[in-house]
Design a protein that fits this description.
Helix content: 40-55%
Organism: Exobacillus caeni
Radius of gyration: 23 Å
Strand content: 15-25%
Number of helices: 17
CATH architecture of the largest domain: 3-Layer(aba) Sandwich
Structural class: alpha/beta
Main location: periplasm
Subcellular location: Periplasm
GO cellular component, one term: periplasmic space
Distance between the termini: 54 Å
Family: Belongs to the bacterial solute-binding protein SsuA/TauA family.
């Protein structure tokens, strides 16, 4: 073996080792990110698109998705390090901050920008007006939750005092509100999809208005993480946000039928046609944010709604609990 050959072999070995090291580092970027979602909902379509279309994988991220069923449980999971990132309403970050914490929960990527509930009437209503609710039995959402706060905010803006002008029922568990209405309770009900559209298909009720359209833009559902996690995993969080942005753009530029087909694996018990109907309804009212930026106007609108409902512990500056740096950078 000649000296020149040995030198060449050594250089080749170094090159192979370097290439292997780069590959290993690349593989190492398939970071596991544990995400706790507050519920499983077509309302969160861009998240499921990012998963089904491989957008997180393209950014070297493996998402472990867990449904935690409720804002309190979701935030508890995040605070106890049972999840890295939570998908939940922004109001929860304000509640945590108000209680006092050295490691606040930071909103860094917005998913939905309107309320996701609809007003459903038992009987078909011609030429609906909000005045028709006065004196009726109204089956509302649980007190203190974002749906209830938005619902009452809209009612008040329409000149209706929920406590005085309605027979307001709010003592039914979230999961049973639809069943209660279907069994005969209430003349009007505030419902999420796909229950609202399903009831319309079945003739149980009729959608007459959208709380999302009436309340304006609000950071209804946002990806958030503890401040310490974002500092220690800035690159991961930015790649996560980039994948989400790709999914938001995909949803914005694809039809409801294409989106429904993409996310159907996450809703195996729901007919594809119904998923498409729901997606189309949300797209038509711009419920899905087209970028992950949670701006100051939306943040203030959220706090106005909470304050009106008597649920805002104190006003918090946008810059205290919102990080838009990554969301802005991924659009460049």
């Amino acid at each position: 073996m000649t000296k020149q050959f040995r030198r060449g072999l050594t250089l080749f070995s170094i090159l192979v080792l370097f290439t292997f090291t780069l590959t290993a580092c690349s593989d190492g970027k398939n970071d596991v990110v544990r995400v706790a979602e507050v519920t499983r909902s077509i309302f969160y379509a861009p998240q499921y698109v990012a998963l089904s279309e491989g957008m997180f994988e393209d950014e070297g991220i493996e998402v472990e998705l867990t449904t935690t069923w409720g804002g309190d449980k979701t935030m508890t999971t995040l605070l106890s390090d049972g999840a890295d990132i939570a998908l939940v309403g922004s109001e929860t970050s304000i509640y945590v901050y108000a209680q006092g914490t050295k490691d606040p929960v930071i909103n860094f990527a917005q998913l939905t920008q309107t309320d996701g509930t609809f007003l459903v009437a038992r009987d078909k209503v011609e030429n609906f007006s909000w005045e028709q609710l006065k004196g009726s039995t109204f089956l509302g959402q649980r007190k203190g939750g974002m749906p209830q706060m938005v619902g009452e905010y809209v009612l008040k803006n329409k000149g209706i005092d929920p406590q005085e002008d309605l027979n307001l029922i709010q003592n039914i568990d979230f999961a049973n509100i639809g069943n209660a209405f279907a069994s005969g309770t209430g003349e009007f009900v505030q419902l999420f999809e796909p229950t609202a559209s399903l009831f319309e298909q079945q003739g149980v009720g009729h959608i007459v208005a959208s709380f999302g359209k009436e309340s304006g833009k609000v950071p209804y559902t946002v990806f958030m993480a503890k401040e310490s996690y974002l500092k220690e995993n800035a690159d991961v969080a930015e790649r996560f946000t980039k994948a989400l942005y790709k999914a938001q753009q995909w949803v914005d530029t694809h039809s409801a039928a294409e989106i429904a087909k993409s996310i159907q694996p996450f809703f195996k018990d729901t007919e594809l046609e119904l998923i498409e109907t729901v997606v189309d309804r949300y797209k038509s009212q711009n419920t899905y944010a087209t970028n992950p930026i949670l701006d100051e106007e939306e943040w203030n609108n959220l706090q106005d709604i909470m304050e009106e409902a008597g649920e805002l512990p104190k006003r918090v500056e946008h810059k205290k609990l919102v990080n838009t740096k990554m969301a802005k950078e991924v659009q460049e």
